[in-house]
Records
---
Amino acid sequence: MGNTVSCCVSPRGSPKLPRQVESLEDYQINTELSDDTGPYLQHISDREVPDDLAFESNPSDHARASTIFLSKSQTDVRDRRKSNHINHVSPGLLSKKYSSCSTIFIDDSTVSQPNLKSTIKCVTLAIYYHIKNRDSDRTLDIFDEKMHPLTREKIPDDYCRTDPEHKLIYRFVRTLFSAAQLTAECAIVTLVYLERLLTYAELDICPSNWKRIVLGAILLASKVWDDQAVWNVDYCQILKDITVEDMNEMERHFLELLQFNINVPASVYAKYYFDLRSLADDNNLSFPLEPLSNERAQKLEAISRLCEDKYKDLCRTAMRRSFSADNLIGIRRSNAVLS
C-alpha cells in the first residue's frame, strides 16, 4: 500500500516516498477530508429525531411522552363518568381498605416488584383498550391468525370483526405467564414492546392479529428481561399446534419491525408502571392491600436501618474527602479585632 500522505496528495501517483512535511500545520491541512473526497458520514447525534417529534411518535422510548393505552382509555372513562352523573348512579360500595389506629394496610406492589396478578390484569386491560379504540385495521400477514393459526380449531369467519373481551385477553396472557413462569416486570416490558411495534411499524392491534402480536411481545420480553429466558420450543409446548419455524419467523419479523431497538430505559419502565396504576384506578381494579404484620414490620425496619447505615457511610466518605479543605479554612481561623 502507498503512503497515506502521498495517496491523499496524488491518488493516482506511484507509492513513492512523500515530500518532507515542513510543519505540523501543513500535515493537518493535507490530511483533512474535503467535501469532494467521498460521501459525508453523518454523526449519530445528527441522525437522532428532534425531541418534539420523538415525543409524539415514540412514546415507548421517551419518559416525557404519554402512553398510548392511557390516552385510548380516557374516552371510555369520561363516557362512564358522564353516564353515571346523568343517571345519578352511585359508584357503589367502597372496596378500598384504609389504615386505622389498630390496623395498617400496605401495598406490596412496587415499581421494582409489582404484583403479578394485578399487573397482568392491567396490561391486558391496556391491550383491550388498544383493540376497542383502534383507529383502523392496519396489519401484516405474519400476525394474521387466519394465515398463521395458533390452534387447529376452526377460526370463525367473523374473527376479524368481533372484538375480544378483557377476560379472554387476560386468560390468554395469564396462561402464557403461568406456564412459562414469567415475572410481573416482564408483563410491563411486553406492553412497552407492543406499543413500540404499533408506533414503529404503523400497525393497529385488532381482532385478527392481537394474539400473535401479544405472543411475539411476550416472547421477546421474556428473552430480554428475565435471567432465565424461555426458548421458542417451550412456547410450542404451551401452544401445542404452533411450530418452531413459525415462532422463529414471527420473532425475526418482530425484531425487524422494532428496528432491533429492545432497550427499555428505567424512566420509561417506571412511566408505564404508574400509568398502569392510573388505569387500574380509573377502572376500579385495586391492587391488593395486606395488613401489616409484626414479621413484615420487622423486615421493613431492618431494611430502613440498612439504608440509613449506607447513607451515613456515604456521608462519612464525603466528609473525609473534603476534610483537608475544611482544615485549610478552619486552622487559620482567628478572632476579629474591632476598633
---
Amino acid sequence: MYVSRAAPRTDCIHLKNLMDELFEGYSPEVLPRCNPLDSVQVQLGLAVRQIVELNEPMQILETNTWVRMVWNDCQLTWNATETGIKNIAVPYRRVWVPDITLYDNAQNALGGLQQYRPNVYPNGDVYYNFPSVIRSLCKVDVTYFPFDTQVCKLQFGSWSYHGWDLNLTGMTSAADISMFVSNGEWDIIGVPAERNEIKYTCCPEPYPDVRFYVHMRRKPLFYLLNLIFPCSLISTIAILGFLLPPESGEKVSLEITVLLSLAVFLLVVSETMPADSETFPYIGVYFACAMGLVSLSCLMTVTVLNLHFKGEFGKRMPPWVRLVFLDWFGKILLVKTTDKLTQYENIKAQKTQAEAYENQGFPGLSTADKDSNYNDPLDAEHRTVTTSVLSDHRDVKMADLKGVKFDYNTSTEVVSLLKKQLDCIDKIQDHMEEKRRESLGMDEWRKLAQVVDRIFMVFFFLFQFGISSLILIRIISADPDVMHFYSAE
C-alpha cells in the first residue's frame, strides 16, 4: 500500500523558514533595543467596548475593552519583497511583550495579555491587540445620585522598566468609543487620555504611564420610577394624616406607617451607595429630611389630639388663644367657628335668681327669670330633660303632701317642704347647665384642634415643597447640564 502525501505549499515553507531565521538566537526576555542608549518606544491605545458594571458599594468598574499596543523590535525585520510575507502572527511567549500593568487593578492580572498573538511586520513593528475585561478601582462620588456623572481612571504603565528603558506614550488623545455598546444604566461621554511621568522616592528614574479617564453619566429613569417617585408619594400621603378626624383614632398610626415606609426606602438607598463618609447623596438628605418631617408630623398629631380631648377635663380656653386661633387663623384657614360658650355665659349672666315668693306662700320665678329660661335658644335641647326630671320629682313630693290639711297651723311646714323641693330643682338645673357649659367648652377645644391641624398641614406642605425644591436647585446649580442632557434624550 502506498500513501501519497501532498507537497507542502511554497508560502508555508517560506513562512517556516522566516520564523526559523527570525527567532534563531532571539530571546523574548531581553529588551529589544539595538542601541543601548535608546529606549523602546511603546504606544498604548484603548477602545472601550462596553461598560459591564459599576459596583458603587465595592467601588469597582468592570469594562470590556480592546487593548492596543505598538512597539518596534529591531531584531524582527525581513524583506517583504523577497519573501512575499507582509506580516506574521507569532505566539505570545516567542516574542518580547512589554509588561503593561493596570495600576488600580481589582484582579490579579490584566486579562487577555498572555492569551493572544502579536502581529509582526517587516519593518519590525509589533502590533499587539487583544480584548480584555478590566476590573479597576474607581472612586465613586454619589453626591448627586441618581443625576450623577462618574469619572473612573484607568492608569497603565510598565511595572519593571523605567522611562529610560521603556518610554510609554499614548496612541491618540482619547480612547476609541466608536464601537461602544450602549448600557442600560450608563451613557459614556468620553474617554480622554494623557501621559504622565512619576518619580518615586526610591528611584531617580521616571516612570511614565498613560491614563484614560472614563466619563460616564447615569440614566436616572429607573431610580426616578422605583425610588424617588414612591418616596415622594409616600411623603405626600403623610399630609392625609392632618385631614383625618381625631375621632377615628388612626392619625398617629398613619404617620408611623409612613415613617416606616420611608425608613425602608432609605435602607435601599444606603445599600446602593458605598460606605463612604466623605460624600453623602442628596437623595439620602431628602429621605432623612422626609423622615424628620414625618416624625415631626407625629408630634404635631399628638398635639392636635391633646387639644381635641382637652375640653373633657373642664379646662377653660384662654381668651388670647380664642382670639388668635379661632378668630384669626380660623377665618384664614376657612374653619367655621361660633363662640357659643361666650353667648351662653352672657345669657346666663342676665338671669337673676328669684329673691321673693308669691303672696300665696309658694316660691316662684320672677318675670326676668321666666323669660330667660324659656327664651334662651341655647337651653332648648335640655329643657325637655329638665321638665321630665322635675315632673317626676314633683309627683313624689305631692304624694307626701296628701293628707296634709292646709290651715294656718300647717302652712309653715308646707312652705318649708316646698322650699326644699325648689332647692332640689335648682340643683338639678344648675347641674344641667354645667353639663351644657362643659359641652360647649369641649366644642371650642375641638375647633381649636381643627385649626391647629390645618396650620400644621400647611406648614408640612410648605416645608416638604421647600426641601424638594432646594435639593433640585442644588443639583442643577452644581451641574447645569443635567436636565438639558436628559431632556435632549
---
Amino acid sequence: MKIIFFFVLTFSITVLSSPPPKYDSIFSFGDSLADTGNLLLSGAIKFPVIGELPYGQTFFRHATGRCSDGRLIVDFIAEAYGLPYLPPYLSHGKDEKFEHGVNFAVAGATALDPKFFYDRKIGQILWTNDSLSVQLGWFSNLKSTLCSHKQDCAKYFKRSLFLVGEIGGNDYNYPFFVGGTITQLKATVPAVVGAISAATAMLIEEGAVELIVPGNLPIGCNSVYLTLFRTSDATAYDKNGCLKAYNAFSKYHNSQLKIALDKLRHKYPHAKISYADYYGAAKRFFHAPKHYAFTETLVTCCGGGGPYNFNNSARCGHVGSKACSDPKGYANWDGAHLTEAAYRYIALGLLNGSFTTPPPTFSPIHAF
C-alpha cells in the first residue's frame, strides 16, 4: 500500500507542475497599431518622429518605432503568453531565425496595394508602399527558415498565433484626410475587406490554423478626426463627444469584415478564425472613462494645441508640441494612435474572450 501511495502522489505532483499550454510563436501583420519598428527600419521617412522621444517614453524609455508612448496590443499579447516582444521583420540578420514569431506590420500600411491610391492621384501621401501583400511576401520568404517540410510546418504552426491586423484603417484615412466623403469611402469597403480576407486565406493555405483578425477602432473618437471634421452641429456627436457618422463608418467596415470571415470559416473548417472587436473594446473607455482611470479620452496627450490638442502643423514630436505629464490618464496619444494604457485595456478584452469571437484557444499564462 505504501508503494502504491508513493506512486500516485508522485504522479499527481508531476501533472500539477507541468506548464500550461500556450502559443509558442506569434506572427503579426498590419499597420501602426501593431508596428514594432518596421517603418523606422525601412527608411521610408528620413527623420521620423516615431524614432524619437516622447514616443516610447512610458515603458521602453526610448523610441522604438512604435506609434505610442509605450506598448501596443501585440506587445501585451506576447507578454500574456510568456513570449518575447516581436522583433520587426526588417531587423533580421542574415542567419537570424524568428522561432518565437516576428512582426511584419508597418506603420502607414494599407490593405490594398499602393497602385489603388496612385490610380486615384493620392499615392504621394502614403507613408509606405509596404502594404499587406508585401508583408505576406515577407512571411513567405521567412517560412523556409522556420520549417523545412509540410509535416514540420504543420507541427510548428499548430502552436502559432497569427494576428492579421489591425489593417484597413489607413485605406480610409488617406482618402478622408484629402477630402474623400463617407459615401465615396463606403464604396471601397468591399475591396478593403476583400484584401484582408484574401490575406487570411493565404495564411491558412500556408499552414496557419489559428488566426485573429481585428476590426477597426471607432475613428470618430480619434482626435485627428474630431479636429479635421469639427462642426457646430451638436447632433453630429454622440453622448461621448465622438463623431457619429465616422463611428458608423467603422462599424460598417467591421460588419462587412465579420461576414467575410464567416465565409472563410465555412471554406476552411479546420482553421480557427477569430474576429477581434477593437471597436467594442475601445468604446468602453470612451463611454465610461473614469471606470478605466482616464481623465481625458478625446484630447491627445501629445500634441500642439487646439480643442483636442491636435494641431497638424505641430503634431506630436514636432516643434511646438509637447507630451502630457501622465499618459496613463489619456486614451489618445497623438491624435491617430492610442496610449499604452488604452492598448492595455483593449488587449485585456481580447485575451479574456470578451471581445474575441471565438476566444483564443489558450488562456494567458501571465498577467500584465
---
Amino acid sequence: MPSLNTSLPSPVTFSLMGIPGLEHLHVWIGIPFCSMYVVAVVGNMTILAMVKAERSLHEPMFFFLCMLSVTDLVLSTSTLPRMLCLFWLGARDIAFDACLAQMFFIHSFTAMESGFFLAMAVDRYVAICHPLRHATILTHTHITIMGIIVVVRGVAFFSPHPILLKLLPYCRTRIIAHTYCEFMAVVKLACMDTGAIKHYSLSVASIIASCDVIFTAISYAFILHSVFYLPSREASFKALGTCGSHVCVILVFYSTAGFSMFTHRFGKNVPAHIHIFIANMYLLVPPFLNPIVYGVRTKKIREHVLGALRVKVA
C-alpha cells in the first residue's frame, strides 16, 4: 500500500503483512494453524453439545466450561479464517470497519477468557476446599452473575479501542505488520501522538491480567494446600494431576499473552517475527488445549462422548 501525504480520519482498507520475514513460510505455517482451529471448533462444540444434552452435567464446573468454550470459539473464529486467507490465498486487504470489529472481538474475548479461567479456579477452590458448601455457594444465580461480570468487564474496558481508532487520522502506510488487526499494530499507523491511547490500552490489559493471575494463583495455592491433606494418596495424585493440567493451560495463555503485552512496552529489540508468532499462540493454543484438558481429561464428559460415539457406530 502506498503512503498517503494527507491525513484521512477513516481509511477504506488496511493491508495485513502477516509474519514479517516468514512470508515464504506462510503456506506451511497455515497447516498447523488450521489443524489447531479444526480441533478447537470440534472440541468446543462437542463440549457445548454434551453439557446441553446431559442433565447430569448441569453443574457449576460445566457451566463455566461452556462459557469458556463459547469464548474460545469466538476468539479463534474471529482470527483464524481471516489469517488462513492471508496465508493461503494472499488476501491481505481488510476493510477498516472489519478490522475494528476483529480487534474488538480479539481484545474483549481475551479478557473474557482470562475471567473465565479465574471463575473456574474459584469453582475448583470451593469444590475441593469447601465441598459441603459448594452447591449453596455456587448457585445458578451466582454463576450467572459471575458470567455477566466477566462479559461486561471485557466489553466495557475494550469498547473504547475501536472507537478511539475510528477517530484517529491516518497518513502513514496502511500496512499492518501483523497477521490480524491488533490494537498496538494499528495505532502505530496514526499520524498524531498516540502515547496516551497506548498507555490506556496497556494499563487496562495489565490491570485485568494482573488481578486475574493473582486471584487464580491464590485459588490454586489453597487447592494444593487442601490436596496435600487428603486422606487418600490416590485421591491426592488424581487431584494434583487434574489441577496440574489446568495450571499448564493457564500458564500457556498468560505467558504468551504477557510476552506480547510486555514486548509492546519493553521489547524493542525482540524480532518482529518472534513477537507476532507468539502473539498468535495465545489466540490459538488455549482454544485448542481447553477441550482436551477440560473435556477429554474430565471423566464425566469423556464417558458421555464415548457413549454417544458407541451409539452412533452401532
